[in-house]
Fold this sequence. Notes:
Order of helices and strands: H
Oligomer: single chain
Number of strands: 0
Amino acid sequence: AAQDEELAAQRETVNGQDEDLSGLNRTVASQDEALAELKDTMTTQEGNLTTLKDIVKFQSENLAEMEETVTTQDATLEGLNETVTAQEGDLTAVKLVMTTQDGDLAGLKDTLSTLVSKV
């Protein structure tokens, strides 16, 4: 009878251990699912990171092209400024010639008036 009781106690212990093992198996299975989801998330994030790297590379190339365009435009603007400055100088020279011609014309009018009055 004592052996029966001991055997029954051992069976209870084994049954308890079986339940514990079943619980552990469920925990492991749940953790496996969570790990699989984390792996999927990580794969997605790696894809997103690659996409972001591609975008940054593309934007860097565009920025480099824009910088070249701005440099070219700066040089063109500088050339236009030099042309305008030269044209302003030419205009000043033309104004001086016109002022001189106005004086010459006034002198000719005076001479003509003098000649007309003598006639």
